[in-house]
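Note to self: keep these together.
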Amino acid sequence: QVHLSESGGGMVQAGASLRLSCAASENTVRACSVGWFRQAPGKERDFVASIAWTSDSTDYANSIKGRFTISRDHAKNTVSLQMDSLKPEDTAVYYCAAKCYESYNAADYRAERKYDYWGQGTQVTVSS
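Structure:
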């Protein structure tokens, strides 16, 4: 069992930056690949980024590529999402999710159904 908790959301203006953090209380998370998803009001939850448990592979949605960076700190059991040059269309609830003890294939980790554990989400609001 892995318990995930997101933090770092907030309300910012377009062009600003935010850094989201996904923290796990269990060291098990070090063996988990982690993804970030987001859900805007009235829309489905979409893939944003993922990182392999080995930290050597990452994947990004085209809509945020070049603006967002996913990283992890195994010592702190955290996965971060650095979000720069934010746009109003980035407004959403952001969720982190984890899948443990499996090899990482970027294409597979774009799907919600791949993940076993989810956080409660953190709201990001970007005003124009």
